[in-house]
Amino acid sequence: MENEDNNLYIEGACKTVQHQINKLTENQANMLTKFDMLSKIVDELRKALSQVSEKIESLEEVNKERRKLKAEMKLLKSRIDDIYGIVKEGKEDSCPSEDVHDVESCHSEFSCSSKVTMTTGLDRDTIRAAYEDVRSDTSPTEWAVFKFEGARIVCSAHGSDFTEFRTQFSDDDRAFGYLRLQMGDEMSKRKKFLFVTWVGPNVSVINRAKMSTDKAIIKDIISNFAVELQLESQAEIDIDQFKDALNKAGGANYGTGVRDL
């Protein structure tokens, strides 16, 4: 009887254990299913995050392009404003008079068949006289300076002392200079000529832009020189630098060579 009761107890306990095992197995299966679902959700989140990152990078590139375009547009507007200012000033300064100079050539490698009306005039007689005076072997004059009086270029000074020549150029000036310098040694002395364009540091952007046109006008008269220099500071007005530029240039090229210090 006792053995029978023990068997019944053991049998009941085994059923209980088996039931618990079955529940654990079922729970484990559910947990695995839920883990798979969580894994899929995590993968989807990763994909979504990757797509968002790509969109952000794309927007950053677009913003960079927009900033670049904005900067280019600003620069273009500035250039248009400068050109407009030049045109406006030229229109206001221009008027029919004997000072307006008609030039049949463009002073460049391109030829022009029609005349171009310049707004800057020349005092031709005084400029030509000063030019020929500097070139003359019998004249003590070794330099001449040409400046603007209103809309005309005139000979403002001439002389033989280079120290005096240096004083002719101020920070507010636009000017041109023509010099005769003695080169060579005791055995071989020769005269060489140099043309300089002066644009002071305080000169406006518009007037700087007009200098190329104005220089072309005065070079109709001052056409014979070995070296041309563009000067913008007092330190560049140095006779040793001038002679060095002439030495480097070699023989005279009669206005075709340009050397910047």
Automatic annotation (TrEMBL):
It comes from Diatraea saccharalis. GO terms for molecular function: actin filament binding. This is Coactosin-like protein. Keywords: Actin-binding, Coiled coil, Cytoplasm, Cytoskeleton. Interacts with 5-lipoxygenase (ALOX5/5LO) in a calcium-independent manner. Binds to F-actin with a stoichiometry of 1:2. Belongs to the actin-binding proteins ADF family. Coactosin subfamily. Residues 42-79 form a coiled coil. Residues 119-247 form the ADF-H domain. Gene3D superfamilies: Severin (3.40.20.10). It is found in: Cytoplasm, Cytoskeleton. One of its GO terms (biological process) is regulation of actin filament polymerization. GO terms for cellular component: actin filament; cortical actin cytoskeleton; site of polarized growth. Binds to F-actin in a calcium-independent manner. Has no direct effect on actin depolymerization. Acts as a chaperone for ALOX5 (5LO), influencing both its stability and activity in leukotrienes synthesis.
